[in-house]
Amino acid sequence: MPRSNTGIGVAVLLVLTTSCRQAEGRHGEPPQEATTSSGTPLVLAIDQGERRTWRTPGGGPLILKVDSRNGGSPDLVMGYEDLAPGEAIPPHRHLVADEIIFVHRGSGVVEVGDRTEPFEAGATIYIPKDVRVTLRNTGTEPLSIAFFFSKPGFEEFLRDMSVPEGQPVAPLTPEDIGAIMTRHQWHTAFEAR
Fold this sequence. Notes:
This protein is of the alpha+beta class. The protein is globular. The chain has three helices and twelve strands.
């Protein structure tokens, strides 16, 4: 049975179409220069990354895994955190970035937008930018979550609220927390407490 060249023709058409679209730019934007990644590939075990300790009571382990400092990503941010039973992430909005939370272990309740939903291990929670979210561990074991941001910024707030693991932990005063929230309000808006 003879082979058809249709597959090759489709592949050539796809390459030409993609090249033309890149030359024209997207959505009427000017074309952008091709860039190469300056990032460093990473393969991290669950407990590896930039390990940090919260400067506020009740926080569990926090690990910044991928960002501009860890792997050199100019766009993505990923971290991993444990919340103790009864602990919560306070209500807030990310003004410039979408967020995805993957629940690795535990259970809880999330309020996202106008929805309130229980969740358990394996759940994925998508929070579009500028949508209110709060999350609480309602289970009896630590709630382990991986979080991902479409744009950088929040990782610097996390660094300001924590110290590298093993360093002395100087507790934050309410004034310190207020100053940190003000400094990062371009990215994250917290509700008044």
